[in-house]
Amino acid sequence: MVIYIHIPFCIRKCYYCDFLSGPSDKETIDKYVKALINEIEYHGGKYGRKGVNNSVASIFFGGGTPSILEGIYIEEIMNKLKDSFEIEENAEITIECNPGTANEEKLKKYKEIGINRISIGLQSANDEELKSIGRIHTYDDFLEVYSKAREVGFDNINIDLMSALPNQTLDSYKNTLCKVIGLGPEHISAYSLILEEGTCLYETIENLEREGKSTGLPDEDTERNMYYETKRILEENGYYRYEISNYAKKGYECRHNVAYWKREDYIGVGIGAASCMDGVRMKNISDIQEYIHIEEKPNSCEEEAETEVLTKEDKMAEFMFLGLRMVEGVSVKKFEEEFCEDFNTIYGSITKKHIRDGLLVQNGENIRLTDLGMDVSNMVMSSYILC
Ligand code: SF4
Question: What pTM value is reported for the model?
Answer without folding.
Answer: 0.95
